[in-house]
Amino acid sequence: MTPIDETVTPGAGAAKGRRRPARQRARAGRMFVTPNLAAIAVFMLFPLGFSLYMSFQKWDLFTPAKFVGLANFRHLFTADPLFPIALRNTVVFTVGTLVPTVLISLIVAATLNRKVKGIGIFRTALFLPLAVSSVVMAVVWQFVFDTNNGLLNIMLGWIGIGPIPWLVDPNWAMVSLCIVSVWKSVPFATVILLAAMQGVPDSVYEAAKIDGAGEIRRFFSITVPLIRGALSFVVVISIINAFQAFDQVYVLTGGNGGPETATYVLGIMLFQHAFAFLDFGYASALAWVMFAILLVLTALQLRLGRRNALED
Amino acid sequence: MLDRPFGRRTLLRGAGVLGAASLAPWSAGCSDDDADALTFFFQANPEEADGRLRIVEEFQRRHPEIRVRTVLSGPDPMQQMSTFCAGGKCPDVLMAWELTYAGLADRGVLLDLNTMLAQDRTFAAELKADSIASVYETFAFKNGQYAFPEQWSGNFLFYNRRLFAEANVKPPPARWEQPWSFAEFLDTARSLTERDGSGKVAQWGFVDTWVPYYSAGLFGMNNGAPWCTPRMNPQHINFDDDAFIDGVQFYADLANKHQVAPTAADQQSVSTMDLFSAGRAAMAMGGHWRYQTFLRADGLDFDIAVLPTGPMGHGACSNIGTTGLAIAASSARKEQAFEFVNFATGPVGQALIGESGLFVPVLTSAVNSAGFARAHSGVRDLAVLTGGPAHSGYLPITPAWEKIDALVDRNFGPVLRGTRPATSLRTGLSSAVDEVLRNP
User: Residue A160, SS3?
Assistant: First the structure.
């Protein structure tokens, strides 16, 4: 018996009695929600508001902040030669991560969506990268990408391909980064797509099969359209993750986004301005620009998705 | 009791009490530490950390009333210090680096030690008389003295005696006044580079254990071009100077053209320090901070020598690498902190540092002491170390160094990889750096 139950008094004044537990329940609910709300206010709303405020200031952590209006944004868009480079690298990284991630996870999810003996083992093995920290993963990949003794170049050597300077050459560094990011992103995308695929009714496939549709036709005409919601979610999340990439870049190619500017993405630029140059106002302005870009992309993507759904 | 159900509220209350009880001793312990101890923030490799702690222990033995809590830095001490200080938990005593301290001093994080010296004129006079001027002045920024130097960490050459003897190659000179040329250095490195049957390098003639783009600059300096003039708050750095560019090109060619030094790709799987420690490199450039590591390497018989001089150079030189000890401007224990800094950078601490072999001390009394010589008994001629500070050129001291460093890293990369000539620094880097210096 719960304390709330104990307060209910049957008989006379039953209506009043019913109102009291309802009020108590609401109060208990508010009490349970309060810590979460407080955490959101302290750890999310306050930093968000503070960073917006800081984006209009010049602040180096130690001296008092000085209001500079839109100067940080103006400098970012008109006078910082590294911003277009960082933006271009981030777009390349996003596309280089997103497209392979969606394609590979679709194939993997379709493969795992079968009733085969021991499929659980394959599913578990595939999801393991999800449990590995990005930094640990990047350190391991550093060994894999070693030019002279790395696993990847040794394997390429077996088929006659000479050593590739994966992390040393600017042209290959971004490719390396995308490979690691795809490796990290595929399991999560696969989990989402697999769950969606398992929700597609078998009867639809059976009907298509009776109509003579082959496996590939069934995949593109039934599976893909019916998991479009999940696919859209995966695309949005992958874009957001790629745009915010920092940890794996920092470990793999260093805090300056090298070699040269090959892996100088927006996350690295933000970190460098905030924690190396101690220019928190400028870094906050950059963070809000990143947020705005992501907001527009996500809204656009959702709108397109909704329009397609209506057309169907 | 047992017949009564265990209510949700009882459970929550119990959890609350347990949580509070578990936090109480932790917070009390924390406040104890914060209230009593003098915090000392420093960076050290494992071999250095042992030596550091010995100095701290000796200080505590002599000053039992001052408890010192050491804070060992992670890989990025500037970032860590900034975060600590911005969060209101600035360590009382901070290690200061010649290239980066100006950023903290300019923002008011470090105490001007002249204010403390004014109260202790005896120590001030003693320090001034015993110091090596160029090293002491490294921390004099905008009319203030923001740290007292505690070591000279300029670069020189370590060489493997056994490999030189086996190849029948003459050891390099051990006095700054007896320079050897870039050409002689290259010949020596060539003679000591060995390849196996497949053409793969089994032994390198030269490896660099410092930061490659700073090392390249040091070769430029040895070719007769200073990094900048003046040293403090310069408005221009000589990345467009012909002599500097030639020196940088010579350094880059060692790996890319002459193949006597490992390329960046060669260094991915094994560090240059390990190559020298394992006897797979004949010469290594580095500072005294590598000394303890090489001393502990199994079977390594090494000595030290001066750096080579380029055709446009005016004599062999090292760089004024130095670290010092600073006091946080916000410290609540300034007197105790000054006591500690006095000890570590004054005659007593410096003599101990010299005897321990931890650093090259920066007081003439300590660097010329019998204790320092005893700690380096394996070295043929100590003049490389004792004469190092007097034969050192300086690097720029500016609050904008972090930005310069990022630019240098970005622009030196292709030169050091051999994909662009060093002359590219003249157009690409020089103007960008000057712009940062003008508008930090």
Answer: coil
CA dist A149 and B64 (Å) reads 53
ipTM over 0.85: no
- Cβ contact (<8 Å) for A258 and B269? no
Which residue in the block uniquely carries the two structure tokens 């497949």? B198
Nearest to B402 among A143, A168, A277 (CB): A277
Does the reported pTM lie above 0.80?
yes
Beta bridge partners, B72, equal B42
At B316-327, the pLDDT tens digits run 999 999 999 999
- Provide the token pair at B47: 């071999």
Q: Rounded to an integer, what distance in angstroms lies between the CA atom of residue A263 and that of residue A146?
A: 17
User: CA-CA distance, B40 to B30, in Å (whole number)?
Assistant: 16
Interface of B with A in 93-152 (CB under 8 A): 103, 107-109
Rounded distance, CA A131 to CA A105, Å? 17
Burial (CB count <10 Å: 0-12, 13-18, 19+), residue B249? buried
B236 φ/ψ angles, rounded to the nearest 5 degrees:
-155, 140
Residue with tokens 């500017």: A261
Residues in chain A, how many? 312
Cβ(B294)–Cβ(B48) below 8 Å: no
Is there a contact between A149 and B403 if contact means CB atoms under 8 Å apart?
no
One-letter amino acid for residue B297 of the chain: A
**Cβ–Cβ < 8 Å for B250, B225:** no
**What ranges make up the beta strands (E) of B252-355?**
281-287, 302-305, 318-319, 322-327
How far apart are the two ends of chain B, measured CA to CA in Å?
A: 72
Residues of B in contact with A261 (CB under 8 A): 410
